[in-house]
Amino acid sequence: MDIDAIRSFIDVSQTNSLSKSSLRLNMTTPALSKRIKLIEAHFDTVLFNRSSKGIFLNEDGKRVLESFQVIQHELDELQQALKTASWSRIRIGVLPSFSLYYMTQFLNLDQLQQLDIAIENNSFTLKEKLNQGAYDAIVGDLSLFEKGQYVHETLYKEPFTLVLSKTHPLNKTAIKDLSSLKNYNLLLLEPPCDTFNYLSHHFKMDATNIHYYRSFESMLTKLITSHAISIVPHSYTNTTYRNLSYLKLNHHKRHIGIVSSNFETLRRLKQITHE
């Protein structure tokens, strides 16, 4: 016996008419009559009194109806609870660059209302908080996340950019390999930092040539007054300084995407971003 049989039984008990209930249930009267008889066969007893005036529950039928109504109520509540849980707001952590420059490419106002969004300074912090359960998903640098432990969807690839003074000799040089930069003082934001992670994996850095800054603005100011260089994600250069040059490193990119430890959460986010 399935839920359709239970709903049919309840409906017939309300209308006292197979023909009326068959119309409400969008089925033929003979099919509904057969369904009622199968329910009676299940309980091995007659549950309705049939007459020219209609079909009416007997005492056994009333007892079955009470149980069926409880079952239907519990199933309806369970369905609503599962629906609410399935479409509750997703807690998601994102990078500042995504929130400032990319988010509106993927999400409109209605879609944003389905999310609880928090901003973290770097992908390391996002990963840590995802592991702690603070977020259901994050948008960050995919290179930090081990295959098999997480599910992910790439959103875009963002090149890194070399930032330096307009008087710097590298302005007249075609940068083909990051190793050609190793003899210059390199200014980076304090770790954890997505740029530091990328550089540490793609070329051997001389730690004595690296200088760290807490503030992005103070780091840029230092670049103007020195022959140091910096490498930042390209989105950081949306605000430019007149005395600085910005050379996009198209062969060096970070892959930004949605990451979650739960496939259903990722599926929902993919559905939201593709609506």
Topology record:
Layout: H1 3-15, H2 18-24, H3 29-43, E1 48-51, E2 54-57, H4 59-86, E3 90-94, H5 96-106, H6 109-112, E4 115-119, H7 123-132, E5 137-141, E6 151-165, E7 186-189, H8 194-202, E8 210-213, H9 216-224, E9 229-233, E10 244-260, H10 263-273
Parallel strand pairs: 3-4, 3-5, 7-8, 7-9
Antiparallel strand pairs: 1-2, 5-10, 6-9, 6-10
Keywords:
D-Maltodextrin-Binding Protein, domain 2, eight-stranded mixed β-sheet, 3 domains, 10 strands, rod-shaped, about 280 residues, 10 helices, Arc Repressor Mutant, subunit A, single chain, two-stranded antiparallel ribbon, alpha/beta
CATH topology of the largest domain: D-Maltodextrin-Binding Protein, domain 2
User: Count the helices. How many?
Assistant: 10
Distance between the termini: 38 Å
Q: Kindly provide the radius of gyration, computed on alpha-carbon positions and rounded to a whole number of angstroms.
A: 32 Å
SSE ordering:
HHHEEHEHHEHEEEHEHEEH
In CATH terms, the superfamily of the largest domain is Periplasmic binding protein-like II
